[in-house]
């Protein structure tokens, strides 16, 4: 058993060491005078004895004074002629050396008409109507029609230039199906004129005569037909027994080129570690660029040349391409695309015959230059009814070796002339290079491969001059555990998000007086989870983008390459999901802010003024309290509802300015260098672009925030603090309930006792307050604390509902049903409104003054845990609690206090549209417009709610 395993291992090692996937880089010029070059194997082989290589080094011929002994194989064996004899030009016979010189119109005759050799060379004059050939070996020959070919036993091929014994053609009958070419993209079948003329002849010359050039031509035709071999007579069927990487054991096979890899070989071939050259990302280094070599063939199978491949050769896009030579820059991406009119696509070709390519990677193994065969993944290959190369399952891929740029000949029908019925062109070509990730293999790569997709256009498309898309891409990437780390981070953080959402939901339920788990609680928990999960997903994607950006751009050795575009697509999907989840939170935020209970508590007392004497007695009159102060405070509240700490138009403008105008967007180009100018055909990596967008947006925001908070609001104008001052000036407090038993209070009771006065008295009041001649503004004596968070007793909420119930009934009668309009209220209801307003005002004033026996509250500060978790431990069933805040906790019911949530939403929206459009300018415009729409919606519904709850006609809200 051990011996069996040993033999198996040795056989495998022998196979791996002898396969032709990796070969030395040689050209025909590297072969000696006694060697010939085998293009499909990229090697030189020794000629037989008394033979030398031909001028092109692609075959062997007899030496000058040698004749052919037999011609069984492709290269015959030779032997030298005796002394005093010379070989004929065809090297079939040896003749005595002649003593005469032939004339210009003569040919040198070396054989009898029956083919027997002459004793010596003789001269003969060509008959009229003929002329000697350039080598004076024949009178240019009789025309085909005058030649004889037994029609009973033989058959003419190649338009009467090849006479073949019919029995040798039984495997390839002359049937219409043999010449059909199927074009699956356009769904057209064409009986090809070229196949009808050449296919059977090529099959005969390759299989029966073992002619190497004919076999190469069959490989070209197989490539043209997208490697289909389902028909009995097909050029691809010749290769059915050779669908594998050729090895040295294949020396005796037909001289077939290497066209196919074996089925299931893709995963093995693409994951080998046989390329020993180490590449670097340092610019200017010899190893910072891939060296690709191409063997080019004519349609007839003849080798054109073997030389370095320029990226221009893979381009069908017309014009000059600056920077195209950097397409194979290691570690960078390249992207070139264009739409070519069909007529221009055809017109730019010099010949209708295509050039066929076999690609190799040239590398240095430390001793000499080597070539590694580059496999091709042709998306158009069809097996039965499936396209295995379009799927992601690498085990199903069918790799091939040969490709072409454009096919104008196979679609020429036997029934038509002129343009072909169908034209094939290389629509997409993508060179994919994967770097090895192991530290010990730093700079090594796996075998590169090309992904090809061919487009097809019909003659009707050409007539209408339709646009043909063409794309050329080069992608370098390195497999890593980024996606695993992302999933793991999301999994771990999901637990934290779940716990945090439970705490917030419990706090919200407590504030609303819902201690049991019901449907409302579950809904609130789901919405809270959406909010926190959105933040978590976005942060994880952001950290991934920033990490990749810094390490990819700052590395000096190959530590990290850009993730594959598939992974970038996964990150993009995460960004989209995060934004959609964030929308749920924003909708809830706007809904909560536009449905709060708000009441303006007027502390102003009616004053008694003396009137005229009546019957000698001085009469007095009670003055009414002006409502304009309430209107003024309500308008100020409506104005600050959508106030932000930053200016969003400036935020988007400066972000776009830095990214597009100053060129910071070019830092996200898919290459290791950093440029402020655009590099031709170097695409912007979406992952790096996302990272740069967030970085620039954050920097602009931080600068704006510091400018606003530290400078503008401190030394120039603070709208939130001014609103509190206005409340004190107007002698009006603001009582806000954002939840059933939780809210905010702004203590606006004037320190002067009244504020409904004239200009002179008002200025005097402010002067006395500046001179510290009046009591403090705070709710507690001797303090300045005017704003509080509060939990209210349940009985207070019960009374609030009972007082406001008639008002809700009155408002429900109105046509609009959305705001309070005086003109729609009758006199009876006006009395009820007035009574309800006065009752609520007196009740809340008494509660705030501790004048109610059964309703009271205490004032204290929140504990550290309460501040950290955003919860309140107090039980508000019997007694309320006012928590001293930082001076503006009430801003939680307007945009100003939710700046963090809103700026994250702004950034998510901008990133969302950037991911969709890949255009920062368009994304900024759309984001600015939608944020403005959101602000208008918030203002509109906020005013309507303010009018309902404060009993102020909406028409007075400017």
Automatic annotation (TrEMBL):
Alphabetical list of PANTHER family matching this protein: MECKELIN (PTHR21274:SF0)
Transmembrane residue ranges: 482-503, 524-551, 571-591, 646-664, 684-712, 893-914, 920-941
GO-annotated cellular components: MKS complex
Keywords, ordered alphabetically: Membrane, Signal, Transmembrane, Transmembrane helix
Signal sequence range: 1-18
Name this polypeptide is given: Meckelin
GO annotation terms (biological process): cilium assembly
Source organism of the structure: Macrosiphum euphorbiae
